[in-house]
Amino acid sequence: MILTVTPNPSLDRTYEVPSLDRGEVIRATGERMDPGGKGVNVSRAVAAAGQRTVAVLPLGGAPGALVADLLDKQGIEVAPVPVAGATRSNIALAEADGVLTKINAPGPELSEAERELLLETVRRQSGDAAWIACCGSLPRGLAPSWYAELVARTHAAGARIALDTSGPALLEALRERPDVVKPNAEELAGAVGRPLATVGDAVKAAEELRAMGARAVLASLGADGQLLVSDEGAWFGSARVDAVRSNVGAGDSSLAGFLIAGGSGPDALASAVAHGAAAVQLPGSVMPTPGDLDPAAVTVTAEVPADRVLKEPVS
């Protein structure tokens, strides 16, 4: 079982539009409503793969009730933490050329009692978890050190934890040595405080995160592929993608694929790349099923192309 923790979940509405023209009436060609938040997406990807998952998340108001209902219909066990504020609603506009515009609401502010209840719920639900995946931004009311506390408690209980967050919350958590951190290129550059122009730059940045405490770094480099750096070595993975439809949740799908495949080594990286590549070819935040995966399109190598210039460099 993979347990996910999403401190700031959302109700996500995705509209497919021909193009985004400011000040004009835009008629959508397609629409979806999904439970959102990075940890929620990991649970959705795990469930789509036919594996058991439990989602821990604070839920409040009508949007929160709808999120729980949508997750239940997808076969995901929900461990809700009732909160006074309403769960946030987000909007994504997906243009025909693959450009995505997102409007994310701030979400409710959690009280001290709600903060403690969230931690206690994770503890109660984590007994038989192979992995705990903690993902996304922190809501108002949770200090940047909250993830660090959760990592410490998780390790004290003997469980493994994967962390997908950024900024001060990531840096604070590194001191507690999370088993895996999963930044994208922008988050990786932000963590080390310098731009990334090549795959080699990303490798050096990942090694710095390991020096700060991360036991392994799974870095998403957008269209360039993914990078895994751990005690076992470094690997680079990429996949052929015929057409990008939406990248919403693609990184979360990658993390799910990585954890499903054991959470370490080149085989897990290959699974992460396959899941991410499949996700970007699906509409909205639809998560891939095993039938959507194309393992033959994936390449993983220990000969990391350090000199390769990133297609999407981070300045």
From TrEMBL:
- Where's the Carbohydrate kinase PfkB domain? 16-287
Which EC class is this protein assigned? transferase
Q: Which SUPFAM superfamilies match?
A: Ribokinase-like
Does the record's keyword annotation contain Nucleotide-binding? yes
Q: What is its EC number?
A: 2.7.1.56
List keywords of the entry alphabetically: ATP-binding, Kinase, Nucleotide-binding, Transferase
| Source organism superkingdom | Bacteria
Q: Does the keyword Nucleotide-binding apply?
A: yes
- Which GO terms of the molecular function aspect are on file? 1-phosphofructokinase activity
Q: Which InterPro entries match?
A: 1-PFruKinase (IPR022463), PfkB_dom (IPR011611), Ribokinase-like (IPR029056), Tagatose/fructose_Pkinase (IPR017583)
Pfam families tied to this protein: PfkB (PF00294)
Hey, which family's this protein in? Answer: Belongs to the carbohydrate kinase PfkB family.
NCBIfam families assigned to the protein according to its UniProt record, in alphabetical order: 1-PFK, pfkB
- Official protein name in the record: 1-phosphofructokinase
Source organism of this protein record? Streptomyces purpurascens
